[in-house]
Write a structure and sequence with these properties.
The protein folds into four domains: about 35 residues, no CATH class; about 190 residues, Up-down Bundle (Methane Monooxygenase Hydroxylase, Chain G, domain 1), CATH 1.20.58; about 220 residues, Aminopeptidase; about 230 residues. Helices cover about 40% and strands about 20% of the residues. The chain is of the alpha+beta class. It is built from 20 helices and 22 strands.
């Protein structure tokens, strides 16, 4: 059989289908693509290839750079071509997102504002068909190119257009390939393929990965234990221990980071994409980053405390400024640490450390807030402590056992003079506020309830207004009309602050009287000494013990131990936040700063559509019986079908003392005022008890009306049925009446009133529901010095159902929201949004 003759292979041009040349030398192809005026023009396309460049233009050092390194990367290549012959597969697009709209405006200066939860844009979910297109995108372009080559002899331009369109499609598909929703699928698939092809090595890698993560966990746990020791040492100003613990923490965290960055980084990337262990890997990384940032922040703080101890200046201002300067440097680290701590899932930690970690995270959040406030007070501290010249302040000591609008009865006061951070003089009159009684040169009528104790208004009763700036200005007015001198501000300090100070510095001995003052007995011991009929009282020096103790505390603060400085600053901030210390300064900028921090004790300005409540108790001739009063406030807001709101407030006061007639066993006589939204209409009031009319004084005929009082308290009317006095004060409506509680008894009063606002009176379109909504917000302020338990119910009509709420310790029901019983320690705010059923 003859052997078959081998066929001769002849190459043909892919353009014109002729033999003897190829596409690059085809005359027909060159005539089309090369213009006569530019014979060297080359048309080319940039296609994706199966390999990556040896080095990315975005290379960074993940270990040394900050956690937000990705946000600092700049694009190294053009985002769009201006040459029609050069095609890019990656072109950036700008997405615009409409700003979120707050549902309720919170006016509180230092309380957490409610945040509206807006639905995030939905992540694109890819169909199975679309995913299949991504499996072999180059097979698709190969087919397109083959078709184009077959038809190019007649339709070259159309073929090029088809190729261009095809590459555009591939560009879009390649973008989708890196869609966040597919990344995990791709990584997980790669890991499965790896395990299938090389099961032995993969198992070894897996074991090494487990060992690596265990090593990271161990270092992270050890780092945080050292960090806790460092924090405790810093709070005690134990610098050697703090330095040692910080160094130990840094070593542990650096070891963990090195492990993450160098050992099995590829497999850790694969593991982080798996749904089961991905969250664990991410949480471990955030835990380590948080530890590093916390340690760096503590390093700044350690340096500040160390320098404050070694500074040649002994002034409190100089030392405080050094600490504040370093605190400002530490704040960014603390802020990033808190963000990472919040993202850590506690179940990645060993079981025995999970509870401690939760407690530490909560504690650090509170400490960070305190540090941030202190760091922002640098200029104000300079002004307050005489860094800009001599300053004189009135220190008002308020006894909370005899409650008054701004905290307590003003039994004692001091004149404090400071300059350049040094206390120049501290004068404490031994007869207390009554020292100014005979020096007063003006006779004015007091507020009507105060006629129960005095026929004229005097210095000791000047804190009548619950708005502290208003009371402070009246205190300064009385001081000027008594001593013919002015002051630069007023600092009101409640007796509870003394307990906190003694809790930090320990017991204080009064050698002269043989007394030991502790956190538990200080107030009662001082009160008994003031009331005792002894030589000091006979000599009109009943407050001499306070005068002597003030010098003891003054010497202490001048020579304060370093370990107590930071705890005192933190407790100072806490007392200011709870209005146990309230400050007022005549300097505008300083007063503005303290108002911004919520330390001025002012009545808040609220929006017309907000509900508001402030209950103010004033003990008049009730001795020190507020020490035995337990007050519970129950609030209820009923939202009607038309959107109007009816509030009911019930105040229960229980006297736990015994009827012995002493300072703590007498009847509690309280003039109670409710401050509610301006324009509220009283429906009913009940449960009141009036003092006997014979005990009220009559003003002298020569006393004058006080213009400030008349301007702040504008009487509207007296309720005929209950005798409740209704006034407009501080852009609020106030209801005032009397309640007397005998020892062992409980008094209960009730106010029912309509709000002037309507829950539908604001815009009806909500970004939350895109339907007609009802929005209700309650702002509750705490009276300084009071111990009040508060609870509330917001009841909706049958036509509404809750869709969103904000505020601590709340429970949502089908017909509204319940604010569970809680003690008011500071001003609070709650919000509820409902929609039509």
């Amino acid at each position: 059989m003859a052997k078959a003759k081998k066929r001769l292979q002849i190459r043909r041009c892919a353009v014109c289908d002729k033999v003897g040349h190829n596409k690059s030398t085809c005359p027909k192809y060159l005539a089309i693509l090369k213009p006569a005026n530019n014979p060297r023009t080359v048309n080319f396309f940039v296609h994706h290839v199966s390999h990556f460049p040896a080095q990315s233009p975005h290379v960074i050092d993940l270990k040394k750079d900050s956690p937000d390194h990705w946000s600092k990367i700049e694009v190294a290549s053009p985002t769009k071509s201006t040459n029609p012959l050069y095609h890019f597969y990656h072109e950036t697009k700008t997405n615009t997102v409409a700003p979120n709209q707050n549902l309720c405006a919170a006016p509180l200066p230092n309380a957490q504002r409610p945040t509206t939860t807006i639905e995030e844009p939905k992540t694109e979910v890819l169909s199975q068909k679309t995913r299949h297109q991504f499996v072999s995108p180059f097979k698709l372009i190969g087919q397109k190119i083959k078709n184009a080559q077959e038809k190019l002899s007649d339709k070259i331009k159309n073929g090029l257009a088809a190729i261009a369109q095809t590459t555009t499609n591939i560009r879009n598909n390649f973008k989708k390939l890196f869609h966040p929703g597919l990344k995990k699928i791709i990584w997980a698939g790669a890991l499965m393929i790896l395990a299938t092809i090389v099961p032995g090595p993969t198992w070894g890698y897996y074991q090494n990965l487990k060992n690596t993560t265990s090593h990271i966990a161990a270092n992270g746990t050890a780092g945080f234990l050292a960090l806790q020791d460092a924090t405790a040492a810093l709070m005690q100003a134990d610098m050697p221990t703090a330095q040692k613990s910080i160094s130990e923490a840094l070593n542990h965290f650096d070891s963990a980071v090195t492990t993450m960055e160098t050992e099995h980084k590829f497999l850790q990337g694969l593991a982080s994409a798996l749904p089961v262990i991905g969250d664990e890997v991410a949480s471990r990384q955030k835990l380590i980053l948080a530890g590093q940032q916390l340690t760096l922040g503590n390093t700044y703080l350690l340096k500040g405390l160390t320098e404050s101890q070694s500074t040649p200046s002994s002034t409190l201002t100089a030392r405080a400024n050094i600490i504040i300067t370093h605190l400002r440097a530490a704040i960014p680290n603390y802020e990033r640490a808190l963000e990472n701590l919040q993202a850590v899932k506690t179940d990645i930690l060993p079981l025995q450390y999970q509870s401690a970690f939760k407690d530490y995270r909560l504690l650090f959040s509170s400490i960070f807030s305190d540090f941030k406030n202190l760091a922002n007070l640098g200029d104000a501290i300079q002004e307050v402590f005489g860094g800009k010249g001599l300053r004189r302040y009135l220190l008002i000591f308020q006894n909370v056992n005899e409650i008054r609008p701004t905290g307590g009865f003003m039994g004692s006061f001091a004149i404090l003079t400071v300059k350049d951070g040094e206390i120049i003089n501290l004068e404490v009159p031994p007869n207390g506020t009554y020292d100014l009684k005979k020096q007063l040169d003006t006779y004015i009528e007091p507020p009507r309830p105060l006629l129960l104790s005095n026929r004229r208004w005097e210095f000791q009763d000047a804190n009548w207004f619950p708005d502290f700036p208003a009371s402070a200005e009246k205190i300064l007015w009385f001081y000027q009309h008594s001593r013919n001198e002015t002051a630069d501000g007023v600092i009101a300090i409640n007796s509870t602050v003394l307990e906190k100070i003694l809790g930090i510095i320990g017991p204080v001995k009064d050698e002269k009287r043989g007394l030991v003052l502790t956190q538990e007995n200080a107030i009662n011991t001082i009160q008994q000494k003031v009331e005792a009929w002894d030589e000091e009282k006979k000599d009109y020096r009943p407050k001499q013990i306070i005068t002597d103790l003030s010098q003891t505390f003054l010497e202490y603060f001048k020579n304060i131990e370093p370990k107590n400085l930071l705890p005192l600053l933190v407790n100072l901030q806490e007392s200011l936040g709870q209005k146990e210390i309230q400050v007022y300064f005549t300097d505008y900028q300083t007063e503005k700063a303290v108002k911004d921090f919520g330390w001025a004790g002012q009545i808040l300005t609220t929006n017309p559509n907000q509900d508001y409540l402030l209950i103010v108790n004033t003990n008049i001739q009730g001795q020190k019986t507020d020490a035995n009063i337990k007050q519970v406030v129950s609030h209820q807001a009923i939202i009607n079908t038309d959107g109007s709101v009816t509030d009911t407030v019930t105040v229960s006061r229980t006297h736990t003392g015994t009827n012995n007639g002493g300072l703590y066993g007498s009847a509690n006589i309280d003039y109670i005022r409710l401050y509610v939204p301006q324009g509220s209409e009283l429906v009913s009031a009940s449960g009141f008890t009036w003092p006997e009319e014979k005990y009220f004084r009559v003003p002298d005929s020569w006393t004058k009306k006080d213009l400030v009082l008349a301007g702040l308290e504008k009487e509207i009317k007296i309720d005929a049925q209950s005798g409740t006095r209704i006034t407009n004060e501080f852009n609020k409506t106030a209801f005032g009446n009397w309640v007397i509680t005998e020892p062992g008894q409980t008094s209960q009063v009730e106010f029912v009133y309509h709000l002037p606002s309507n829950v539908f009176s604001v815009e009806k379109q909500s970004a939350l529901t895109q339907e007609e909504t009802a929005r209700y917000q309650l702002v509750v302020q705490r009276q300084s010095g009071s111990e009040t338990d508060f609870e509330s119910q917001i009841i909706l009509p049958d036509t509404l159902t809750p869709v969103w709420k904000d505020g601590s310790e709340t429970e949502v029901a089908a017909n509204g929201m319940v604010i569970t019983p809680q003690q008011l320690e500071n001003d609070r705010i709650w919000s509820l949004v409902a929609k039509q059923k």
